[in-house]
Inverse folding.
């Protein structure tokens, strides 16, 4: 069991490192392509097709397709970013996923209007208090509350 635990910790560390590399790569890509093109790629990925993205962006399909081709002629970075569309299509097909990502939502902090969720988190933290975790729990709850206060 100890060896399994060590392997799990190693995998978690490797996963964290891979996430850092992914973030750096995405930031680098966003600096090397036009914001409009990057936005379009994200819309295509969300909608599942170029025609679905064109409709969502209120552009004619032929015009949108032609502008995408112009961007693709620029360099390899544009082509590589566009290749994600093929990967997405093979993995998920053409169905739209916009607004249907519960995993993504689970990683987001509650919005400023989500007072019920904030109160639920504070109440859960207060109920979990015991002598062993008192100080760390108070620090965590304090941080949570400060994140939701308006900056002055």
């Amino acid at each position: 069991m100890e060896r399994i635990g060590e392997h799990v910790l190693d995998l978690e560390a490797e996963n964290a490192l891979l996430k850092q590399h992914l973030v750096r790569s995405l930031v680098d890509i966003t600096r090397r392509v036009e914001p409009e093109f990057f936005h379009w790629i994200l819309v295509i990925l969300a909608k599942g097709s170029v025609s679905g993205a064109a409709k969502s962006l209120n552009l004619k399909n032929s015009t949108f397709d032609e502008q995408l081709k112009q961007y693709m002629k620029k360099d390899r970075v544009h082509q590589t970013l566009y290749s994600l569309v093929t990967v997405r299509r093979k993995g998920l097909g053409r169905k739209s996923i916009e607004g249907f990502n519960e995993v993504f939502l689970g990683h987001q902090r509650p919005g400023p209007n989500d007072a019920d969720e904030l109160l639920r988190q504070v109440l859960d933290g207060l109920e979990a208090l015991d002598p062993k975790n008192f100080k760390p729990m108070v620090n965590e709850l304090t941080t949570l509350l400060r994140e939701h206060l308006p900056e002055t």
Helices lie at 2-32, 35-47, 50-56, 61-72, 76-92, 102-106, 115-127, 134-147. The chain has a mean pLDDT of 81.
